[in-house]
Inverse folding.
């Protein structure tokens, strides 16, 4: 290169954009094949061919089939593939920023309902796939428990829970109430609408988490004598 000639800058943005397109194509192909062919018939090679990339690209991006399915789970749960943690998303920020406890719990119930509407079809498919997807579902449950723990901890630290509340017990209870198994049983199993489920969950959370109002002191009752 002649002296004084500027170096050509490396176009890293174009490479990142190509990687994003490939990732989106792979995850869309994975979704289509999972729901059309089932988990066991959905191979890395089949996904790569449908996405128009090499199998090596899939392995480099996701580490294999479990990693690819977990990435599909994550974007389904979040609703997009933006690199924003769930705790920093606008809906969660609104929940945490709401002061009135009843309103906060209604917003949380709506948030849980939205997640279940997005992820339940994939959850049902994966639970039928047997032990091969055990690690994916176990990781998803650990992450869900982390989110529930953060929410109940927020309630506790903000003083929303009563003085007699047991945060550890409440974390377990909220985790069970807001789980995908119960949502599936009530909607698919018992025919509840998503609206009915959301209102029920809000009512259950309110009954469990809203401290009862203080009782006024009872007037002294004199002893009766015969």
């Amino acid at each position: 290169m002649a002296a004084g000639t500027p170096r050509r800058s490396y176009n890293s943005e174009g490479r990142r954009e190509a990687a994003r397109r490939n990732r989106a194509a792979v995850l869309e192909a994975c979704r289509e094949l999972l729901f059309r062919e089932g988990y066991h018939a959905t191979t890395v090679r089949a996904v790569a061919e449908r996405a128009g990339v090499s199998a090596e690209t899939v392995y480099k991006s996701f580490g294999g089939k479990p990693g690819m399915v977990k990435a599909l789970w994550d974007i389904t749960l979040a609703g997009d593939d933006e690199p924003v943690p769930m705790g920093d998303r606008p809906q969660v920020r609104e929940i945490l920023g709401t002061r009135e406890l009843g309103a906060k719990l209604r917003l949380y119930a709506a948030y849980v309902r939205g997640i279940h509407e997005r992820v339940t079809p994939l959850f049902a498919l994966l639970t039928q796939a047997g032990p091969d997807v055990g690690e994916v579902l176990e990781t998803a449950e650990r992450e869900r428990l982390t989110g529930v723990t953060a929410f109940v901890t927020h309630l506790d630290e903000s003083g929303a829970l009563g003085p007699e509340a047991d945060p550890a017990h409440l974390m377990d209870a909220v985790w069970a109430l807001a789980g995908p198994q119960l949502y599936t049983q009530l909607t698919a199993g018992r025919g509840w609408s998503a609206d009915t489920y959301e209102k029920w969950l809000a009512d259950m959370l309110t009954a469990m988490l809203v401290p009862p109002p203080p009782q006024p002191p009872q007037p002294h009752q004199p002893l009766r004598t015969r």
